[in-house]
Amino acid sequence: MPDIIHLLPDSVANQIAAGEVVQRPASAVKELMENSMDAGADFIQLIVKDSGKSLIKVIDNGKGMSETDARMAFERHATSKIKTAEDIFAIHTKGFRGEALASIAAVAQVELKTRQEGQDLGTCLRVEGSKVLSQEFCNTSPGTQIEVKNLFFNIPARRNFLKSNNVELRHIIDEFERVALAHPSVHFSFVHNNSELFDLPMAQLRQRIVNVFGGKFNEKLVPVEEKTPILELSGFIGKPQFAKKTRGEQFFFANNRFIKNAYLHKAVCNAFEGLISENTHPSYFLYLKLDPAKIDVNIHPTKTEIKFEDEKAIYTIIRTAVKHSLGQFNIAPSLDFETDQQFAMPTPPKGIQVNPPGILVDPTFNPFNDPKEKKGGGFTDKSHPASHSLSSQKANQDWESVLNSLPEIETESGIQQSSGIESGQDNIKNFIQIGKKYILTNHGEGMIVIHQQRAHERILFDKLYASVENNNIPSQQLLFPQNITFAAPDFQVMQSLMPVLRELGFDIDEFGKNEVVINGIPLYLEAGELQTVLEKLIEKEKDFADNGPQEHYKMIAATMARVSAVKPGISMSREEMQALTDELFATQSPYVS
Ligand code: ADP
Ligand code: MG
């Protein structure tokens, strides 16, 4: 039998390694930016085309490489960062495995230009699918720039596996944000398809967070600070009232490297317990500084999960420090009054079946029957205590007695009553607004309590959605066109939303950098809410699992309805209550918000 074992050629070995290091354009971005950080750069530019599918370019002003190092850098297990296995336990750099450049060059067309300070000429090296095509001297500024073109050009299966441009770009933005947040003292910029998404000058951490996530973030942040022998903790948490429905800005950094750790995440959530509702998520930006020897770094380079030696102690320190900050900034007691009322949807406890409100009409009821018989009525449907079932006869009596007692109730603040002009007449509806939140009115033979905001939401949703379905979208021109500016990444989302918004009755166009101008809006929308509507839409759009245009329209219509609906605290006239109630019962499902 001949021998059958042979060594794989380097190019094949590198491609296999690349599968682990480079899963998508964002992984290459991460590796390249980390190399620039390790090279001591304080200005790093990221230039990307087609969500990294055709170009990823990173330019830094770091220490550069010598001619020989430039060549060596592309060899597997070639690193300047460790010499012995023990060094791994004292690692202060991002990389140390010497795999990234070799892996990237195995699956892309790479051009490296690098020059060390003090050298007249730099080195230009071109590598394609692990093959060095050329190496020559060149003019280039001090530092390093690497162009990665046509990622996975030689592995079509991997290339086809990439997600849509939106998704891949989102991954790149995530990586960029993580590196940028870990290093506020470094100037970063990010240009995608010739438009600048971020320009983040050197700053203090708080300013960096605001520069990344937008001006409104400043008021949301509360500092966290704790020094213990095993851990120095610093950073910010978001105030509870800004907790979001979607998992948003949650960042842990260990020794300036972004990490994920479910256990420590629980520590933060635990500190927030009772301050935010169960289905919302707190924001945090927490920086852990600890002895590198106490962290298990001997894990895969692209994995962000890391292990700590004193995990329990770290948990307690984080939880306590976050609680302390929440208390110190007096956030806990004021919470009850600051929760976002607009979106407060009471949710029933798990496992409890909620019956939709229903009205049972007694079909045998005859108003001309002997009044004595009525006395025998009452709440007949005893088997259905949860449903609001009323015997119609008793209901009528009760209703009358409610109305008779109204003048007294009226004096109480927050209750408005408007009854029919001649209350003896049939078909006259009576309306009472309670706590500027609920409308009480007669309905059929009984009465009904309507949550004004949710009713209005339902009406608006139906109208907006119906207009799309019928392809008949009433729009109103704005007297004063509105201009709205967005943070650059949000503007990208806005751009992709614009065609759909036009179909929903918006007259909206791009207007200069990161700005839109709105000339017209759907008939049912309030111009005053425009900015909020668009911001909410962008937030929803980011989390939208693309499951078809119908669902997309629904999501947009629901978001617009929610923002524009009349809020609790608004008093309504009789006419308004009448209109709202009539419109509500003209919708397809008046009982469901
Ligand atoms: P690692 O970062 O794990 O050492 P890489 O493959 O990412 O492995 O890089 C290999 C080596 O190339 C690095 O150790 C470093 O010496 C050099 N290098 C890579 N990128 C840069 C850069 N932007 N500036 C200077 N040196 C770099
Ligand atoms: Mg590296």
Provide an overview of this structure.
The chain is α+β, with helices and mostly antiparallel strands. It is built from 18 helices and 22 strands. The protein has helices spanning 10-21, 25-38, 67-72, 100-106, 156-161, 165-182, 205-213, 262-272, 311-328, 331-338, 371-374, 392-404, 406-410, 452-469, 488-503, 530-543, 549-564, 574-586; strands spanning 43-49, 55-60, 109-115, 122-128, 131-138, 143-149, 187-192, 195-200, 221-227, 232-238, 250-254, 257-259, 284-289, 295-296, 307-308, 415-418, 431-434, 438-443, 446-451, 475-485, 507-510, 515-522. The strands form 5 sheets. The protein has an 8-stranded mixed β-sheet. Strand 21 (507-510) and strand 22 (515-522) form a beta hairpin. Helix 14 (452-469) packs across helix 18 (574-586) and helix 16 (530-543) runs antiparallel to helix 17 (549-564). The protein is elongated, with a radius of gyration of 32 Å. The model is unreliable at 333-346, 371-393, 406-414 and 419-425 (pLDDT under 50). Bound molecules: adenosine-5'-diphosphate and magnesium ion. Adenosine-5'-diphosphate (ADP) is lined by residues 31, 35-36, 39, 60, 62-65, 73, 78-81, 95-102, 144. Residues 31, 34-35, 95, 100 line the site of magnesium ion (MG).
Give a brief outline of the structure.
Helix content is 35%, strand content 22%. With 593 residues, it is of the alpha+beta class.
List the helices and strands and how they pair.
Layout: H1 10-21, H2 25-38, E1 43-49, E2 55-60, H3 67-72, H4 100-106, E3 109-115, E4 122-128, E5 131-138, E6 143-149, H5 156-161, H6 165-182, E7 187-192, E8 195-200, H7 205-213, E9 221-227, E10 232-238, E11 250-254, E12 257-259, H8 262-272, E13 284-289, E14 295-296, E15 307-308, H9 311-328, H10 331-338, H11 371-374, H12 392-404, H13 406-410, E16 415-418, E17 431-434, E18 438-443, E19 446-451, H14 452-469, E20 475-485, H15 488-503, E21 507-510, E22 515-522, H16 530-543, H17 549-564, H18 574-586
Helix pairs in contact: 1-4, 2-6, 8-9, 14-17, 14-18, 15-16, 16-17
The structure holds adenosine-5'-diphosphate (ADP) and magnesium ion.
